[in-house]
Amino acid sequence: MGHMIDEELVVAVEKAVREVAAAEIVPRWRRLAAHEVIEKNGPHDLVTVADREAEIRLTEALTALLPGSVVVGEEAVHADPASYAALAGDAPVWIVDPVDGTRQFVRGEDGFCTLVALAHRGRLLGSWTYAPAREQFATARLGHGARLNGRVLTAGSPPPGAALRVAVSHPDFTDDRQKRALLGLWTEGVAPRACGSAGLEYLAIATGELEATVFSWDKAWDHAAGLLLVTEAGGVQRTVAGEPYRVDSDANALPFSAAGDERTLERILSLLAGAAG
C-alpha cells in the first residue's frame, strides 16, 4: 500500500470513529451500571461494555474502509493474545483502543478518548484521537502534519527557564527497575506527574501544553496514534536504548519517551539512564 494514505481515508475514518463513539461510548458515559464494569487483571485494569461494543463496531467499519486490512484491538488481544502478532505481518493494521483512559471514563471524568492508528510493516501512516467529552478530534497523516479540530499543531520547545512538564507512567504499571529509572525525573527543572489517558498526554505534547511523556509499558494501542501525532507535530520519540519505539516490536527497551523537541528528549532520557544505573 506504499507509505501514504489519502485525505479521503482520513476523513472517512474520522466519520466512523465519531459514529461509533456516539452510539457506544458517549451514551454510557456517567451512566454505567456496576455490572458493566469488569476487572481484567485487577482493580487498575478495567474494561466496560462501552470498550467491548465500540471495538466490535470499529473493527467492522475500519476493515470495510480498507479491504485486506486487519485490526489489533485491546479487547480482542486480551481475548486472544496471539492476535497481537498481526502488527509484524504484511497486511495493513488498524490499531484500536476503543476507550483509552477507562478509569477516567468509569469515574465519569472527561479525560478519555478513542484511539485509532493505521500501520503497515511497523510504519505508522495515520492517527485519529477523539475525546468526545472535550469535543477534541486530532488527526495526523504521515508526511502531512497533525491537526486538532482542523488547526495545525506544532509541538515546539518549552519556555526558557520553565520546569519541564512530564507525564509519567502511573506507579501501578511499573516494576522495581522502572521505578528506579523514573525517580531520576524528580530533580530540579522537571515537574513530573502521573499520566492519565496516554492518548491525551500525547495530544498535550502536540499542542505544546506538555513537554514530554515517559511510559513503562509498550502495548501499541496506547501509543501508536499519539506517537504519530507527536512526530507529525514536530516532536520526537526514543527508548532508553536510544532506538525509536516500534509498534511492531514486543521487545522495545523500556521506559521510552516522547517530547516536543530533541533537547527535551535528550534530557529526559539522560535522567532515566542515570537513575537506572
Q: Biggest sheet, in brief?
A: 7 strands, mixed
Between the first and last Cα atoms, what is the distance in angstroms?
A: 43 Å
Indicate the radius of gyration in whole angstroms.
Answer: 18 Å
Percent helix range: 25-40%
Strand content: 15-25%
Q: What's the number of structural domains?
A: 2
Strand order of the largest sheet: 3-4-5-6-7-8-9
Q: Give the low-pLDDT segments.
A: none
Structural class: alpha+beta
Helix-strand string: HEEHEHEHEEEEEEHEHEHEEH
- Going by CATH, the homologous superfamily of the largest domain would be Fructose-1,6-Bisphosphatase, subunit A, domain 1
What average pLDDT do the residues reach?
90
- Quote the CATH topology of the largest domain: Fructose-1,6-Bisphosphatase, Chain A, domain 1
Shape: globular
CATH class of the largest domain, named Alpha Beta
Strand segment tally: 14
Q: Tell me which CATH architecture of the largest domain applies here.
A: 2-Layer Sandwich
Count, helices: 8
TL;DR of this structure?
This protein is an alpha+beta fold and 277 residues long. The chain has helices spanning 7-25, 49-65, 74-79, 102-106, 176-183, 198-206, 220-232, 262-276; strands at residues 37-39, 46-48, 70-73, 93-100, 113-120, 123-131, 136-141, 146-148, 151-152, 164-168, 190-194, 212-215, 236-239, 256-259.
